[in-house]
Amino acid sequence: MEKTAGGFDLPYRSPGTAALESIIVVLFTILSILENTLIIAAFFHLKSLRTIPNILVVNLSIVDVLSAITTHPLLASVLIQGAWCLGQEACKYQAILNSFLFTTKTLSVTFITLNRYLIIVRYKKYTNMFTKRSTRLFLVAIWISSCLLALSPIMEQDEATFHAKESLCVISSKNSASSVVMVVFENIFFLATIYLNYAILSLVRLHRKQVFSFFDKKTSPSTSRVTPASAALTSCRPYAIGTRGTIANRNEEPHIARKVFTVTTLYTICWLPQGILKIASLTNNNMSREIWMTSTFCMQLSSVLNPILYGLLNRKLRKTIFGMFKIKAKMLIHVAATEVSTRRLQMRSFKGAFTVSRVGAQAP
Q1: Residues 258-282, mean pLDDT to the nearest whole number
Q2: Is 133 exposed, middle or buried (CB count within 10 Å of its CB: 0-12, 13-18, 19+)?
Q3: What is the C-alpha to C-alpha distance for residues 156 and 268, in angstroms, rounded to an integer?
Q4: How confident is the model at residue 155 (pLDDT cuts 50, 70, 90)?
Q5: Which comes out higher in pLDDT, residue 283 or 266?
Q6: Is the pLDDT of residue 347 over 90?
Q7: pLDDT tens-digit profile of 4-62?
Q8: Using an 8 Å Cβ cutoff, are 249 and 212 in contact?
Q9: Which long-range contacts (CB under 8 A, 24 or more apart) does 114-120 make?
Q10: Burial class (CB in 10 A: 0-12, 13-18, 19+), 143
């Protein structure tokens, strides 16, 4: 990294690479602002959406919006200009803000995952732990603890420097204790989130196997009488998801499993590179700029994926957003169903299942 009169230069990039990096950051910034703003607007538009899980999702959307309108433009300016030209004070501002928003986002995602885990796995504990009052206290604790962790390096009089390979300003610790604490703290919550998602997925699959085993025994002629095993499955329903019965759970479990698997996979893709590189930076490993920039783009991508994974997959919230834009969800479903029916009709006709005769006046 070369220091110039105005700041610090990035390593050499080809014009195509520079243009591509700039376009990616600008695109991620626009998408993040639009998607998260829709989530927040829908939450305040419909009162029935103001549930405890949605409060946590909206909190995450607020963090993503703040990140998109504060730190993302600074990153875009660096990639467009090819250097950090805003001075030392602005560099310190970006380093503190990046650390604060990164920690807040990590904690928010962890609490969303914990909320879902308790709803599905330990519903009684969920009702005792997550009330509206306790949820507000959790959110206040998230923001305060993130603020204290972000300011701790400054309290220790650490300086902010420009990391050219990452294209961001970071805190360079004279004493590495604060950096080690931050890295350990963030990786613990990352692993906790992965573990909770894995526990949900494992439990859903286990319950689904038990449900199918119960239905197979129930429909089999040789097991028409009530056995102790079938009675146990009927009475216990271990970790039953929801309260609408086994058949409803049987239909909902594939959707829950796919959703949890998708969330876990994309969350890992977005945050695992950053965790690995933070650990590598403590050991003074010299990684290439391409690896560091991939990690930076993955962090930006998380602000785009979060509103989709935690918000837009909610059918009621998605329907509210459609309604805000005067789009009738029922009309879309009807059109999709009509297209599917038309395709099936054409395929059956093609297979000779039936023939369609011409209707109308016959020619003289």
Answers
A1: 81
A2: exposed
A3: 32
A4: low
A5: 266
A6: no
A7: 444 578 888 889 999 999 999 999 999 999 999 999 998 888 888 888 988 999 999 99
A8: no
A9: 114/196, 115/52, 115/53, 115/56, 116/53, 116/196, 116/200, 116/260, 117/196, 117/197, 117/199, 117/200, 119/53, 120/200, 120/203, 120/204, 120/239, 120/241, 120/256
A10: middle
347 CA to centre of own chain: 39
* Tokens encoding 175: 């004493």
- Percent of the chain at pLDDT exceeding 70: 69
Query: What residue type is 274 in one-letter code?
Result: Q
Instruction: Give the amino acid at 25.
Output: V
Q: How many CA atoms lie within 13 A of 305 on its CB side?
A: 18
Strands 159-163, 168-172: pairing kind: antiparallel
DSSP state of 220: S
